[in-house]
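#dry-run=false #mode=assembly
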Amino acid sequence: MVEVLVDTAVRGSIIALLAVGLTLIQGTLRFANVAHVEFATLGGYSAVALTGAGLGLLLSSALGVALVAVLAVVLYRLLFRRLLRSGPMIALIGSLALAIVIRATLQLLYGSRPRYLPTPLERGIDFHGALITPSQIRLVCISLGLLALLALVLKFTSLGRAVRAVAANPELADVSGLNRGRVVDIVWMLSAGLAAVSGILLSIDSAVGIELGFNLLLPVFAAAIVGGLGSIAGAVIAAYALACAESLVLQIDWGAIVGGTHHLEVGYRPAVGFALLVVMLAFRPQGLMGRAVRRG
Amino acid sequence: MLVVEGIKKHFAGIAALDGASIEVRAGESVGLVGPNGSGKSTALNCCSGFERPDAGRVLLLGKDVTGKEPWDVAKLGLVRTFQHANLPTKMSVMDLMLAGGHLVRGETIRHSLVSWKRVREEEADAVDKAWSILERIKLDKLAGHPGGKLSGGQQKLLSLGMALMGDPKILMLDEPTAGVNPSLRVELAEHLRKLQTEGVTLLTVEHDMRFISDVCDRVYVLDRGAIIASCAPAELSDHPEVLEAYLGRSGSRAVVESADRRTLS
Amino acid sequence: MVEYLLGVGILAAVYAINALSLNLQVGVTGLLNFGQVAFVGIGAYSVAILDSHDVPWIVGFLVGAVLAGAAGALVGRLGRTLASDYWAIATLALAELVRLVALNQDGFTGGAQGLSAVSGIWTGMSTTAREAATFATIVVVLGIAYLVARRVRNGQYGRVLVLIRENPDLAASLRHNVVSAKVRVMALSAVMASVCGGFYAMYISFIGPGQLLPFATFLIFTMVVVGGLGNTTGAVVGAVLITVLYDGTRFVRDWIDVSADQAAGIRILVIGVVLLGFLLVRTEGLVPEKVKAAHARR
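#status=ok
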């Protein structure tokens, strides 16, 4: 059981950092950015590149996050603004295309074999029967810290008020004298930065491969949609709930239902997220904490 | 023809409709007026199946259509138009007219693949009908133009034409004059009067009081989700509560417009 | 050389059927199906599984078409309450589910190894003759698919689908059952995609979960966008061009010195850049959707 808890905390944190950003973009631009998870991959690879150039892990990570944040704004200005002008459908296809381009470029530069960050070898700590590494503890603490910080920024600063105003009503925000363009730029930097952090944390915990982001795409979308797109708290709660469900489904002995002892094969782990996503979309598209979406 | 009994509709705790009742008899032309946010559009949406009322009933030709799908309501003969026509730029005027028609065979995959001779005949009949309606609303010269590239007023006219393709028994118009220039408004009013003489029942939601008095026999006044008056358009000014609720702003506009009309003629 | 050209031709024709199907969904109706490969997979696996039990191939095609059609109708039904972008994500999730099932149900699907030695359509001929006969057969099937797609697009049903894409409320107000229209177009497209899948499995005589990756859907999206969203002829044009391009990049290692891994990256990159470029610079594609001229008076 402790194993489930540890698993939930680690995977939930990674998903939460990404889902929060996705939800922020959706809230301000009304557009589902499929390429969002690629910012995590880019974060991981920029840390690999910078440590490869001889920089320390901490400095590389910080620089990597900054690089990805800047790249995100550049991509938004050069690409997404143009795509969005042709309508949400073109923007969605375009974000998928961008995701593919990013992945292919990384494959061209780094090959498809996973890369490892130079982290010191750490001994796992025995925690009531489950093994935790210090890097996992750091991962969870950093994620929770950043999520708390984001919540504080959105709640109490003028930037936060501006972001919420744009999210609540993109058309009205201009009237009340806010610079909508600036707010959107900052939202892109914030969400891409958080994505990069999650990518780097995940790379430290295991490794970075070109599929790092894509493997998270559906769980992240599931969390953001289940949480009610646009709701930060909803996305975080849903992320941990989803991670918990994934972990539990594999632990539970389904024998009670089908007879005998029957554990679901590990290969089906990602299926939990997909299934939850589809069920959620079919029966409660407004999400757990979101408002009703108009039909049509 | 259309009976609305005490419908209620809430959005996020705010009552858009609070027990409104409306009755439209066959052959009548009824107006629905009220200030912004009084629930006019919600009422129209509830009648046409685009919104499901929280309480109350909608009866169309004696049948309960409360909460039915829009297309099921439309199949019974109620066709509505929208405040913003928003016609597609990728469809020609003629295409849009045909889309408004009822081509039973052409709408199924099986028939369009197998019995395409009959499908073609069906379409040829619809094309004839479309031409005659387009001539009537004077859009026949624009038949090949993209619908979405017409002017706002022409799009409103075309929406009316598309609705007519399906031979509606009752037409519900949501602000038919919004964004339409004055000369076209007069033309639109004439079309609606003519339709009424042909037996089409009309329910019009409108801000323009002069248009309402030109087109409607009777008017319902909606305020904060409830009907506060029902009378002939000319008697509207006799109701102090109506003046208070509504005519303060639009009333003065109507006066200005009737002055305009005098200078024009 | 002839065999190579025939091979590319067969592949282009198979992809063109797929592109026609995706164009009906995305181009005509505006349904962003990111899980198209699932329908292809259902068709391919039906043919391959039944073939391994020595069932005639035509039965495999029929079973695949029925299964895919049902799946398509279900997915279309799911579209009823969903805004289009969530629906797109849901289709991607469903396709990944299908791939996971193919990967994990070893006894049935051959698991990660997939099913190989699927027999072709014209067995018992010499290689070149068989390729030519296969090509001819698939071109005939493509011709039928093209006529079906065109007829559907140009008739009243197509008109209603375009109206649903552009303004669903307006379509509903004109007594068109929006849900049923979407369900039917999804079912029809799924059947077309399953036919494409069946031929694909028979031509390369193999099907595995590796063929069901989202990139396979992405490739078809590129074809439809390059050809021109909403244009039936465009879908075929796009399919031919992108097949030639994608197949041609197989030889990238003959020109530049890169590892096999990097070469794979380049091939994907080329397709991604082409799609992104078209979306940015020529959104309407090479053969844009036309506004039809008015019908003449009788």
